[in-house]
């Protein structure tokens, strides 16, 4: 037994972190929110160039041929930067699932953009910037979109109508799109949580009240360390789920659900605690924290919320 | 003990219900954190005032009905039951008004209370500063005496509804030499005076629900002082406890919210999910418990046992309960929980706002410190 990532996996993730520190600072995320697109073509090109978008697509089709273990830290890094746009949908599902279809080449090259319509939601995230939408059994092109006013400006919601259909049977390493997204978003939520904790810890070091940094107050220390506790103990289950996906383990669905349930709860707890640490400024539009909080509130409820996934785990455990 | 309503109370409830049913607008008003919504809410307040419902617990001479706290709670229940608009002048009517009645001069009462009850003047609370939030006694904004005027300088922040409010009530440092809590004075100030700049601040939902207020050599007459000079801290704290404990969030608000939650669960909840059913029931019990606790508290007040530091218990209880109600609602509404506009947007707005409850009017940590120090009499930490 060995529970760690290879040097290559870690270096790739560090490289992505560096790229995102430069190319996806909160100012960019905010621009993308405020210009109404929810997507940055420049950032997309960088992610494509680095091979992030095609990580899970097979080499035979021009992808990186990575497994979910290769991808899981990348999802987490994307979360740390609250990367906007349909990156998860494209990377975790559309590009690998459609690799061998006529859509494959341009998706893998990042020239066309795909998003997903997987659960029974009436809304499709990112449809406004997507060239195609992948559904359970078909691909949709040339559809019409209507803004549904999503809370997260980096994950705009739409209702979708019309469009041309092409049959497809999406499947990524034996996972249906819903489960692949549950896994990817669990890791993304962990990344978001880590970043929220960093932002709040930094604030708690510099903000003073009663002549002391607020981080010196036990109440603030506990808020922060309790959040960290939740986040740290969501990580190993999430990495395990990635491993289960990479070998097609029998326990795969249970493992993904465990990861998504824990990561969703950790992210929610973290959002509340870090907002609380900020006091009044945590409740403003101008504080960067909101970019991460709102993304976490959107993702914790997408692809099954904690309650859904806990019930699925209980279906296995208590069977 | 008799938890049944008296004949008089029942008659009062009926009168309130009848009036509200006839007068509450059919469709909900736009948020009072927008210019249009603010104006419409002000109009609504005028209507309430004309019916003498805007400040039921105030004396009749100032536009109230002289109702006791029990009746005030009954009115609140009817108000929320009727789905009536939010109270745009709540800082005035529920916080400043009672303070003026307690420490104001007769002239001040005549001058400020009727226009407050009618919302001809809407009030903002200018207490917090950029560097004085939890540590409110650390405020730096100054008032210097110049003849019959105060000259105000400094900066306030997070003043709710101050973008469109007419006046504010602030605390200013008047004796820089004195120990922190001493040397502060409570001053009332119009927001359209020369030297005042109001900068709107957008909240989590994007609306400018609060503002920064900059004072640059602003002159106000000394007769705008409330209470004694250098005794402003005591004046501010006199009503802060009542605000935290009772008046800011009456139980009716939560009873109405849990009733809506139960209806939502019946309509959309997954009935096979027993954990969800338990959560709805649990928060219903919390709202009911808070209602009972409040009736007990105000009965005590009527019998001469004023609410003290234990108001901080209430503040923690209601703000956590409010978050919980909305968390459960968002779980039930699923994909709609991600939308800022739509048929269920009220739950989403309510969720965002509920998250500020553990921060405004003193954070949880500050309330817990008050409980520990003053109710439990634990040794002081700092
Ligand atoms: C929606 C909203 C409306 C508001 N409306 C008004 C208004 O109308 N008028 C007005 O004057 N103000 C208003 N406020 C301001 C509010 O009262 C302050 O935000 C609040 O008191 C906290 O102060 P702060 O923001 O400076 O946070 P800080 O005091 O900086 O607190 C940051 C964190 O440090 C913690 N902390 C600070 N001191 C201690 C300690 N000693 N022990 C343990 N933990 C500590 C806090 O609990 C918090 O978690 C409003 C705030 C909000 C969010």
What would your notes on this structure say?
The complex is a heterodimer of chains A (319) and B (382). Chain A has 319 residues and is α+β, with helices and mostly antiparallel strands. Helix content of chain A is 55%, strand content 9%. In chain A, the strands form 3 sheets. Chain A has a 4-stranded mixed β-sheet. Chain A has a 3-stranded antiparallel β-sheet with strand order 2-6-5, with no helix packed on it. The longest helix of chain A is centred in the middle third of the chain and has 30 residues, at 177-206. Chain B has 382 residues and is of the alpha+beta class. Chain B is 48% helix and 14% strand. Chain B contains 11 helices and 8 strands. Chain B has helices at 7-23, 35-50, 69-81, 90-103, 106-117, 232-247, 251-268, 274-302, 311-333, 345-356, 364-375; strands at 123-126, 142-146, 149-160, 167-173, 184-190, 196-201, 210-221, 225-226. Chain B is globular, with a radius of gyration of 21 Å. Chains A and B meet through strand 8, helix 8, helix 9 and helix 10 of A and helix 9, helix 10 and helix 11 of B. Flavin-adenine dinucleotide sits between chains B (125-128, 133-134, 158-160, 210, 356, 359-363, 365-366, 369) and A (207, 209-210, 214, 217, 219-220, 276-277, 279-280, 283).
């Amino acid at each position: 037994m060995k529970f760690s990532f290879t040097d290559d996996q870690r270096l790739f993730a560090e490289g992505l972190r560096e790229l995102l520190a430069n190319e996806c600072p909160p100012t960019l995320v905010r621009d993308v929110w405020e210009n109404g697109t929810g997507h940055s073509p420049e950032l997309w090109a960088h992610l494509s160039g680095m091979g992030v978008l095609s990580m899970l697509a097979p080499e035979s089709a021009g992808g990186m041929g990575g497994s979910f273990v290769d991808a899981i830290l990348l999802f987490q890094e994307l979360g740390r930067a609250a990367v906007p746009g349909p990156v998860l949908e494209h990377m975790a599902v559309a590009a690998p699932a459609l690799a061998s279809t006529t859509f494959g080449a341009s998706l893998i090259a990042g020239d066309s953009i795909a998003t997903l319509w997987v659960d029974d939601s009436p809304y499709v995230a990112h449809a406004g910037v997507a060239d195609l939408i992948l559904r359970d059994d078909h691909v949709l092109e040339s559809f019409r979109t209507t803004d549904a006013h999503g809370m997260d400006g980096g994950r705009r919601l739409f209702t979708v109508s019309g469009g041309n259909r092409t049959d497809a049977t999406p499947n990524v390493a034996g996972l249906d799109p819903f489960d692949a997204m549950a896994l990817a978003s669990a890791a993304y939520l962990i990344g978001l949580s880590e970043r929220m904790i960093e932002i709040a810890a930094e604030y708690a070091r510099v903000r003073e009240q009663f002549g002391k940094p607020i981080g010196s107050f036990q109440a603030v220390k506990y808020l922060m360390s309790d959040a960290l506790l939740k986040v740290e103990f969501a990580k190993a289950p999430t990495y395990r789920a990635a491993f289960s996906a990479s070998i097609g383990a029998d326990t795969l669905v249970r493992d993904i659900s465990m990861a998504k349930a824990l990561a969703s709860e950790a992210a929610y707890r973290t959002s509340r605690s870090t907002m609380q640490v900020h006091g009044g400024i945590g409740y403003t539009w101008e504080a960067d924290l909101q970019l991460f909080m709102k993304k976490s509130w959107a993702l914790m409820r997408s692809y099954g919320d904690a309650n859904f996934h806990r019930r699925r785990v209980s279906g296995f455990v208590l069977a | 003990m008799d938890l049944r309503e008296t004949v008089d109370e029942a008659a009062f409830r009926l009168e309130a219900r009848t009036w509200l049913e006839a007068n509450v607008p059919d469709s909900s008003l736009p948020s009072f954190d927008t210019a249009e919504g603010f104006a419409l809410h002000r109009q609504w307040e005028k209507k309430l005032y004309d019916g003498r419902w805007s400040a039921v617990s105030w004396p009749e001479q100032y536009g109230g009905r002289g109702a006791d706290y029990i009746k005030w709670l009954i009115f609140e229940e009817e108000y929320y039951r009727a789905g009536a608009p939010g109270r745009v002048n709540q800082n005035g009517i529920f916080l400043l008004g009672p303070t003026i009645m307690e420490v104001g001069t007769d002239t001040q009462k005549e001058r400020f209370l009727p226009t407050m009850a009618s919302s001809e003047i809407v009030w903002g609370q200018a207490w917090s500063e950029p560097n004085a939030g939890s540590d409110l006694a650390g405020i730096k904004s100054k008032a210097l005496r110049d003849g019959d005027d105060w000259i105000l300088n400094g900066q306030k922040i997070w003043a709710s509804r101050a973008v469109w409010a007419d006046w504010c009530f602030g605390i200013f440092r008047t004796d820089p030499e004195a120990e922190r809590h001493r040397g502060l004075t409570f001053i009332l100030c119009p927001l359209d005076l020369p030297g005042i700049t109001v900068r709107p601040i957008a909240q989590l939902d994007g609306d400018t629900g609060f503002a920064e207020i900059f004072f640059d050599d602003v002159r106000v007459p000394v007769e705008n002082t409330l209470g004694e000079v250098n005794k402003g801290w005591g004046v501010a704290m006199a009503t802060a406890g009542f605000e935290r404990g009772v008046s800011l969030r009456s139980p009716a608000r939560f009873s109405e919210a849990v009733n809506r939650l139960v209806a939502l669960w019946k309509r959309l909840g997954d009935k096979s999910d027993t954990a969800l059913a338990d959560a709805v029931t649990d928060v219903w019990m919390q709202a009911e418990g808070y209602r009972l606790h409040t009736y007990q508290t105000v009965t005590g007040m009527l019998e001469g046992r004023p609410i003290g530091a234990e108001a901080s218990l209430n503040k923690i209880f209601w703000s956590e309960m409010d978050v919980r109600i909305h968390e459960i609602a968002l779980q039930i509404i699923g994909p709609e929980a991600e939308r800022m506009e739509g048929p269920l947007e009220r739950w989403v707005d309510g969720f965002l706002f509920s998250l500020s409850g553990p921060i405004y009017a003193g954070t949880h940590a500050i309330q817990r410190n008050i409980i520990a120090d003053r109710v439990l009499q634990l040794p002081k930490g700092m």
